[in-house]
Amino acid sequence: AWDNENYIYALAGARYQDSNRTIFLRYSIPSNSWEFLENTPGPQGAGDALCWCGYDGRIYAILGSSTHGTTFARYNPQTNTWQVLANPPGGTDDGCSLVWTGGAYLYALRGEYYEASPLQDFWRYNIETNSWENLSPIPDLDGVGDGGSLLWIPTKPDYIYALSGGSYLEQPGYGFYRYQISTNTWESLENLPYPVGEYNGNRLGFVNNTIFYWQGAPPDWAGGGNKFCAYPLIEIPSVLMVVPENSIIMPNCWFNVTVTVWEGEMELENIYLVAHENSLSHTASDNIRNHYTWSASKSAGTWQFSCPLGSAYIDTSGCSVLENSETKTYTAIFSVKLSKIAAPGMWNLYVRAVDNTGLDNYLENINAIMVQVYLEMSLSTYTLSFSGYKGQSVYATQSPMTVIVSSNRNFTIKVRAAGDFTSDGYTISASAAKAIGGRTVSLSTIYENVWNNILYGENMQKQIEWRLDIPSNVAARNYTNTFYVRVETLPEPPLQLVQNPSFEQTGYWSFGTNASRSSERARTGSYSAKQVVNSSSYTAYVTSDNITSFIPGQTYYLAGYYYLVNPGGGASPSQYTLFIRVRWYPYWENDDGYVQTPSSGFASTAFDSWTLVSFQVTAPQNAVRARVFITARYTTGQTPPATSAYWDDIWLSTQPP
Predict the structure, then answer these.
(1) Tens of pLDDT, residues 410-449
(2) Domain of 320?
């Protein structure tokens, strides 16, 4: 393992019959010399793997084999000491490999720990928490074997390249793969021209935008076992950053979006920026309500900016692209605006970068901006004049008044009077004035609706007729009053965030061991979710698909109905603890760091009846997605008979169910 400076660190390794080889060495590049270092804290073997980590400047090592056991440790070059860490999820052997990817994580292939069956295990180690997790397995059906290897390239930060090595049957291995960190997915690349396997020790390497491998296989295999091969990389652009990530945006106001893209050949041609309501896909059609696309395109050396929805939503004079040939990056600034009717709530920002060969890459910031409620109003007149005789009903000469409203939320128009009409001690009751719109209102000092639940829109026009019913006993004089016209947005109707809340469809939910969609009983419809309740039934979980249409920091109502079957045997409902909660996740690419609300379960209160349970939960500020997670178990210290629990009508909303 090279430390990116002056040293290469090496494990001496061991044969299966060696009992306790722990030799650890370092090679000095400047002096062309070797030195022995502190021995490894566990025996070495065929399952060894070593990597340098720039996150903390340490050397990490997986040590051992199927006969020596497995030890995971890190070495401090400053103190020449080892520290034993949490062991990986399983033992390692031929083909084990370890790689650092530029942050707080290491990734590992397990290797051929069992000679009789294929192993595709792929793991991730969190340096901060000293913990491991299983990831998507490498897609080689014959498993990882001799010659397995991992490679991370800083200029391709979202990818790990891998050789799966020879098969568990010791057959030649041609598998070459690429793993995408952000999506936890693998893809197969072009097969190796000459197979690896049978022997350990060969590794992937990288220099000058090319991946290399040495075959290191038996001489009677294709290629003679000693081929040295190169795989030139196609430079795929990489979207490194999109800013803002958590900002408040007012419709009809200009704001900047900054995009940073890496492109190794400096041949980027197009950058597409999409802003869309988080309930939509970035591929939806553009419209001024909830989906916008802007583009920066390079032609004849010049960047041009545009917006398909029109020039009203992009300020080209404020847009720019800065190209840096040293860092091979492009920094694009989009000066953009959303319409007055852009939907209030959380929006995502999606960026796609395309080079001159059509290769592309994308990055999406979930809930990057919060679009505020927008409301503006103007009146066709600000003076009303009535003229008439006692007992007459007269309309203002300026009537009807036109109220012009732009809003991104449904609204209502209200009117009131400052008080009664007055003239040097004489009065006319405010109620003598009528405002006539969707309904007729007799004015008072309290606002009343004259137009209700008007659909959002831009320059929406509603008319108000103003009439004065002049009392028959009024003194003939000039009277004055002040009327107020007020526009208020209406609250959004409750948004149910849970898809398929009654389990009537087959999708939107996942079920663990001993849990399923069931037609045995239902509160509404024909189906519910069923789970076994026993001492270890945490695995009998029911969980929703990802939920994204929430606002970080906002409080929601979580509710559901449960039906607990009486198992007999003198059991009491309180002997069973049920859990319905929301897991809030700060990342899309993995489930690390989630927060659960509520944090604990509740003792059930009834058998054989549908019972409502409800909680208030608040979305953390850093949450980008959420899932409803339901499970159950015996109450601590209790040992009742096993039974079944059913769930139906699950609710997550800003309003109670």
Answers:
(1) 999 999 999 999 999 999 999 999 999 999 999 999 999 9
(2) 238-371
